């Protein structure tokens, strides 16, 4: 029974760890840093917790019940706490480090206390006892690690999954050990421990019942009163604000503004128009799940087929059914010329190299570069695969983001240009001023038109802007981005 408790507690501990990694990475958009922060802080804190547990081994059952009740409460509430910090304070990295340290301290105290309890039950060689305990601990970690992505996340979501793990942790760690070693604490202490375990379970159940209310309050703090749709999809949180008529329409993905209706058409026109100036019978759209890029493609006569590779099917479904979005994209995703493929763009390009005919135009409507999320979509490997799908005379266009002399965004822009040049594409950079009141600060948005042969930028008014922008190209050119050296 003690080894079973160790097994379950190890599974729950790994669920808390993965919760901090996954949720923090989604909120901050930097999963590599988040993973490193959580793992390093938690492992260090486990060592400190093991040292501190030496002072608790005189009453190991009582101490273990207290530790597990505290771990169940902190770990179970960690997801909600992290989300609340991000929503109300605008950042959650400090909260992530604090939660990782506290959870690590409590997990680190488990092993010395469990070892003492095992030795009380059955005197045996210390090496055998350590082997039994570590085997239960490691197998439990395997079960917890597999349960998190394949069971807890799909069935309960991140916050509710952590709360469920906390409840299991409280029962397995506190109640089982208190029942097995009920003679260790005095009667009054035992009643207090049982009451504490019950309060933890009640707190977790209350938090589970109030999870939706917390999420609604957090969204109100982030987006105001006009949240019309909110869903924690399989890949990202999708929030739509504004009226169903389209007034004030904004689309947020994981808390970041992805679409403002007043600016959407100008951005998509700037992306699509220069590339569509040549042959455009077959067009490939990578990303752009809101349907606006596809709408701009279909405005040009002569388009026979559009293949839209959309990584998030939840966003695509919303763009096909929401009245404001469908009015904005003009039901472009339902056009018979459009074939929607729900797939990761990188993986689809690898498979399509031998299965798809060439495309006259490729439009990459992807999240802006920066950080680790989606970094593979701005690499030499990605655009090398895309270049192989271009027909002779075909064009590729992309939008690396805003420009500003001397800013990190402009340095990333020229690094993206170097990446395109590294796969033997000729590039034409151009900028379009975008910024409608209510949609953010007006700024020049940078675009890149690339082809295997020299291209002429159209319409004519863009050529002057392109000449001015080309004069800002840094010398020497920044190195291209690769999977091993992504954009910073």
UniProtKB/TrEMBL annotation:
GO terms for cellular component: plasma membrane. InterPro entries: MFS_trans_sf (IPR036259), PABS (IPR030374), PABS_CS (IPR030373), SAM-dependent_MTases_sf (IPR029063), Spermi_synthase (IPR001045). SUPFAM superfamilies: MFS general substrate transporter (SSF103473), S-adenosyl-L-methionine-dependent methyltransferases (SSF53335). Keywords: Cell membrane, Membrane, Polyamine biosynthesis, Spermidine biosynthesis, Transferase, Transmembrane, Transmembrane helix. Spermidine binds at residue 290. Belongs to the spermidine/spermine synthase family. This is Polyamine aminopropyltransferase. One of its GO terms (biological process) is spermidine biosynthetic process. It comes from Peterkaempfera bronchialis. The chain crosses the membrane at residues 33-53, 65-89, 95-118, 130-153, 159-179, 191-210.
């Amino acid at each position: 029974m003690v080894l079973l408790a160790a097994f379950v507690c190890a599974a729950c501990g790994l669920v808390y760890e993965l919760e901090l990694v996954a949720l923090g990475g989604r909120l901050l958009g930097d999963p590599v840093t988040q993973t490193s922060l959580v793992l390093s802080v938690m492992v260090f804190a486990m060592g400190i917790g093991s040292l501190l547990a030496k002072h608790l081994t005189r009453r190991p059952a009582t101490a273990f019940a207290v530790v597990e009740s505290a771990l169940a409460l902190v770990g179970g509430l960690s997801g909600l706490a992290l989300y609340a910090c991000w929503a109300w304070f605008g950042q959650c990295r400090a909260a992530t480090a604090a939660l990782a340290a506290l959870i690590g301290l409590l997990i680190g105290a488990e092993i010395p206390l469990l070892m003492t309890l095992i030795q009380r039950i059955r005197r045996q060689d210390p090496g055998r006892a350590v082997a039994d305990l570590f085997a239960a601990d490691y197998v439990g970690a395997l079960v917890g690690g597999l349960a998190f992505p394949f069971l807890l996340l799909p069935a309960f979501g991140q916050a509710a999954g952590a709360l469920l793990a906390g409840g299991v942790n409280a029962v397995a760690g506190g109640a089982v050990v208190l029942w097995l070693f009920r003679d260790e604490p005095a009667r009054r202490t035992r009643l207090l421990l049982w009451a504490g375990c019950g309060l933890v379970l009640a707190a977790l159940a209350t938090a589970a019942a109030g999870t939706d209310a917390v999420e609604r309050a957090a969204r109100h703090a982030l987006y105001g009163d006009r949240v019309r749709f909110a869903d924690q999809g399989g890949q990202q949180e999708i929030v739509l604000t504004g009226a169903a008529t389209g007034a004030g329409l904004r689309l947020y993905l994981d808390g970041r503004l992805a679409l403002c209706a007043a600016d959407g058409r100008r951005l998509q026109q700037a992306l699509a128009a220069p590339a569509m100036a040549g042959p455009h019978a077959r067009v490939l759209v990578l990303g752009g799940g809101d349907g606006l890029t596809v709408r701009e493609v279909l405005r040009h006569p002569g388009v026979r087929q559009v293949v839209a590779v959309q990584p998030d099917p939840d966003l695509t479904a919303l763009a096909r059914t929401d009245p404001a979005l469908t009015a904005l994209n003009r039901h472009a995703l339902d056009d018979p010329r459009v074939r929607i493929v729900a797939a990761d763009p990188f993986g689809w390009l690898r498979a399509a190299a031998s299965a798809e005919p060439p495309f006259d135009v490729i439009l990459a409507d992807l999240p802006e570069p920066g950080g680790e999320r989606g970094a593979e979509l701005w690499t030499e490997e990605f655009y090398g695969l895309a270049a192989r799908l271009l027909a002779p005379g075909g064009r590729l266009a992309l939008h690396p983001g805003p420009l500003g002399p001397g800013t990190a965004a402009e340095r990333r822009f020229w690094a993206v240009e170097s990446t395109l040049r590294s796969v033997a594409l000729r590039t034409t950079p151009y900028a379009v001023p975008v910024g409608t009141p209510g949609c953010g600060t007006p700024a020049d948005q940078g675009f890149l038109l690339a082809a295997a042969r020299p291209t002429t930028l159209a319409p004519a008014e863009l050529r002057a802007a392109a000449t001015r922008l080309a004069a800002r190209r840094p010398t020497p050119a920044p190195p291209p981005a690769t999977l091993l050296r992504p954009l910073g």
